[in-house]
Design a protein that fits this description.
By secondary structure, the chain is an alpha+beta fold. The chain contains twelve helices and ten strands. It is globular. The chain starts with a helix and ends with a helix. This is AraC family transcriptional regulator.
């Protein structure tokens, strides 16, 4: 079991390209506040990235910026901030050299308390001057699909946008130099074995001693190492992961609360409901009802 794949899969991410256009002259693009996360690829020409309280950042062809938490930002033709600072505005004057932009958004169906999202910064900037062979190949395929407009192209573009975000996450993880955090834990051989065990069988009644053996560490060394890297105990991590899985299954429907609880290692429905409410913010029954309501309303209109 690959812990990073597991948490990425549980995010149920969906990426979409919402803009593929050439901009000339005076222009500005602002997608802030509309989506969970956004990305902008400068496919050709030059652009300037503006963030409140930061110096403008020049972006050239092939450079990519990703905003995992939808931090406030604007792209424009000039190093001078747009005045007034636009909100949710896309516009330009058709004159001068063109800048080609590909902009999109990323939505996470089951974000919750996900260690991948928690560990990502406000902005990721990937520069083609550094070795990014995998990323370059993806965006080149993306541009081919956007330019050719073949049948099935929209679906292909969406899947490539998904892959683009996954590759960005992997590049960020590979460049992580800190000795703490989710990325460091995944790269640590001992903790990766313990995380793989948890993700591989979340319903198993894991004990600290058993996980410590998986990590080939003493109990005390394992607990200290886990807390230092992930800022939570193994039991807290296991509970949070179980509740993410439980929320996903309850949203999908078809299973009773007690069936989900038992499959995730809970012998007491009361204990499961208490843990679920603490981690998710509502009871499991309420979550399932809220998920079913739109479907019921739609069915009633037929």
């Amino acid at each position: 079991m690959d812990p990073l794949s597991d948490v990425l899969r549980n995010l149920r991410l969906r990426a979409r390209v919402i803009l593929h256009a050439d901009f000339c002259g005076h222009w500005a693009v602002d997608t802030s506040g509309q989506y969970a996360a956004t990305f902008h690829l400068v496919a050709g020409g030059r652009a300037w990235l503006h963030r409140e309280g930061r110096k403008p950042l020049a972006l050239g062809g092939g450079e990519l910026v990703v905003f995992p938490h939808d931090a406030r930002h604007v792209l424009s033709h000039s190093p001078e901030p747009p005045d007034p600072f636009p909100r949710n505005r896309i516009g330009g004057v058709e004159e001068g050299a063109a800048t080609r932009l590909v902009c999109g958004y990323i939505e996470f169906e089951h974000a919750g308390v996900n260690p991948v999202l928690e560990a990502l910064p406000d902005m990721l900037h990937l520069d083609p001057a550094r070795e990014r062979a995998g990323l370059e190949g993806i965006w080149q395929l993306l541009m081919v699909e956007l330019e050719r407009e073949r049948p099935g192209g929209e679906a292909a573009v969406d899947r490539l946008a998904d892959l683009l975000f996954i590759e960005v996450v992997r590049i960020f993880m590979e460049g992580w130099t800190e000795q703490v955090g989710f990325w460091a834990a995944v790269r640590d051989p001992a903790l990766c074995r313990a995380l793989a065990a948890i993700h591989g069988d979340p319903g198993h009644p894991w004990q600290v001693e058993e996980l410590a053996r998986k990590a080939a560490l003493s109990r005390s060394a394992f607990v200290d190492r886990f807390r230092r890297f992930l800022d939570r105990t193994p039991a807290q991590y296991l509970t949070q992961w179980r509740m993410q899985l439980a929320a996903e299954r309850l949203r999908n429907g078809g299973e009773s609360v007690i069936a989900v609880a038992e499959s995730l290692g809970y012998t007491s429905e009361v204990a499961f409901r208490k843990a679920f409410r603490r981690e998710v913010g509502c009871g499991p029954g309420r979550l399932r009802r809220e998920q079913a309501e739109p479907l019921d309303e739609e069915a009633g209109g037929l």
